[in-house]
Amino acid sequence: MSYRSWGGTKTAVQRVIPLYWEQEPFPDTEGKLALPFGNGRSYGDSCLNDGGVLLDTRHLDHFLSFDRKTGILRCEAGTLLSEILSFTVPQGWFLPVTPGTKYVTLGGAIANDVHGKNHHRSGTFGCHILRFEILRSDNSRILCSPSDNKDFFSATIGGLGLTGVILWAEIALKAISSPFIQSETVRFGNLDEFFSLSRESDRDYEYTVSWIDCLVHGKNLGRGIFIRGNHAPPLPPPTNFSSSRNIRNFPFSPPFSLVNTLSLRAFNTMYYRKQIRKRSKRLEPYDPFFYPLDGISHWNRMYGRKGFYQYQCVIPEEESEFPVRELLTEIARSGQGSFLAVLKHFGNIPSPGILSFPRPGITLALDFPNRGEKTLSLFSRLDEIVASAKGAVYPAKDARMSSKSYQQFFPRWQEFLRFKDPGLSSDFWKRVTKGDECNAY
Amino acid sequence: MQRILIIGATSAIAQEVARLFAEKGNRIFLAGRNPDKLSILANDLSLRGAIQVEKGLFEATDFDSHPRLIEESFNSLGGLDTVLIAFGTLADQKKCEGSVEETLREISINELSILSLLTLLANRFEKQKSGTIAVLSSVAGDRGRKSNYVYGSAKSAVTTFLQGLRNRLSSSRIHIMTIKPGFVDTPMTASFKKGFLWATPESVAKTIIKGIEKKKDVLYTPFFWRAIMIIIRSFPERLFKKMNL
Prior knowledge:
The complex is a heterodimer of chains A (about 450) and B (about 240).
Chain A: E1 2-4, E2 11-13, E3 15-18, E4 34-37, E5 53-56, E6 63-67, E7 72-76, H1 81-88, E8 93-94, H2 106-111, H3 119-122, E9 129-135, E10 141-144, H4 150-156, E11 165-172, E12 174-175, E13 180-188, H5 191-204, E14 207-212, E15 224-231, E16 248-249, H6 261-274, E17 279-285, H7 286-290, E18 296-297, E19 308-316, H8 321-334, E20 341-346, E21 361-369, H9 373-388, E22 392-393, H10 403-409, H11 413-416, H12 427-433, H13 436-440
Parallel strand pairs in A: 3-5, 4-5, 16-18
Antiparallel strand pairs in A: 1-2, 6-7, 7-11, 8-12, 9-10, 9-11, 13-15, 13-17, 14-15, 14-20, 19-21, 19-22, 20-21
Helix pairs in contact in A: 8-9
Chain B: E1 3-7, H1 12-23, E2 27-32, H2 35-48, E3 52-57, H3 65-77, E4 82-85, H4 93-97, H5 100-128, E5 132-136, H6 149-169, E6 175-181, H7 201-213, E7 218-221, H8 225-234, H9 237-240
Parallel strand pairs in B: 1-2, 1-4, 2-3, 4-5, 5-6, 6-7
Helix pairs in contact in B: 1-2, 1-7, 5-6
């Protein structure tokens, strides 16, 4: 079956074997390498396995136990975060960390050790996982926690699904007293303002992130809108609030990208200017605050048939200002970016995963319509800036980094090989290890 | 609050129907073959809000066990308001063509065992003068085709039996619903290539719940299968027999 990943720049043909019950043995892949597959929201090729087998885990979606007093939830790994939220929010519990879409599986969130707007307070998703079980291709099962099989625990968190199929996991949820978020947006005129707003906001706000206008350079370089919020205290719900969200659908992929320099300049200027006052406060349901893009299903189609890339990197804390400025200048000059351009400060809570992406510093994420070689060569220039700043590029978003860059960004990859399941692989993994894996065994 | 018996509860469509029933705080009895799967599902349903979940082992072709299962579910839930029969196997047509034994086995699972359960349930429901019996038949039963006629004829018999039962029990105010799903992405169809006509078990389950609420007699799901089957049934046999279906 032919699958595209979220970015749509990569297609792979593979046999899909759905997994339905956690107690069933590892399926017969007829000697082919397999890859556990969640909801396919990875942008590049970390969720694809051309010529091999995809183990579709979406049907492993049973809730196994939930303690309403402590907020500890155990459920199967194919459960979507959206399904967890609709189950736990009415009972006063929220995800301790959530990425920008709720349409990812629990297993996928662990395998990519995802992060959210509260990284500076709560670290990564993996920091809140208490234990899980993996099924290996030799049919063995390993129960992993910070105390049992600790090494497999830290290899699986951020391990891109390559240590075994995560069957179920236990997660410590966070108590909330309202499904609403008190949020504030603040307009800022340049990068210096971003840094000072970020420092100030991290102190008082649990959630912080900012949108930036990636087309502007010069003295307004890095202008944008800072978004910050806290869970609201118990309040009577606003009377005009409807809990069901109107989800729109992007019905098909147009032959060309709707995102181009013209539409982008218009949009960015409008978005930046629409906020007339410098600050604006509101009380909003958690859904639009955390998942603005989930309001349009298949929004990725607006980039047309050629698809799009996302480039997300992190620049380490010390001396992050200069490299971030360099990256933004390079991007603004190229004129290639898109609406979605995000800056966020990562805090210093360490991830348990040995291949986790987040590390203390500034993370920058941008979408780029796929313009072929032009886009790829921009990315190579960005990689160089990231490499010289000793940063890293995020595998979950990546479709093109070189094996050299990967191995530089994730120096512990060889240590990881001891825990990798020899029966599993992905297009991403083949690309970034390029046969070096065999030499390392 | 309703008391619901689901036979073949671990099938993909049944699981999704069960979840919707659970979220509304009903009492549910799950019957199925595999105790481990039943336990996982029972747990899931209790967490989702079912106020009582019971389980019983059930083997379709063990006809002697049918009265016991129905008795047990009646007793443990204190009566039944709704029954969903959802088990089945998708016969391997080629294998059936080469083996009488295989054909009879498929007929036994997909037809005879359902008729046995329906006979027992009908008498119970007739006495209590209320309730719903919903059964998963299939669009495959609407017309025999060379690729799938063993399964199709079993489903066709179920559909006809349900028609008769509906007629018999309408004066007792029993709601009999024939569910005719089209292509649904489930373990039963795991080896098929999926295209745009395919539906998810979740969406099919929603239509089943709605159908039960609205007391539909025959439910095509997704709805467009009604139109597709009108066309397929309308071909004269003289032409149809030459078609590659």
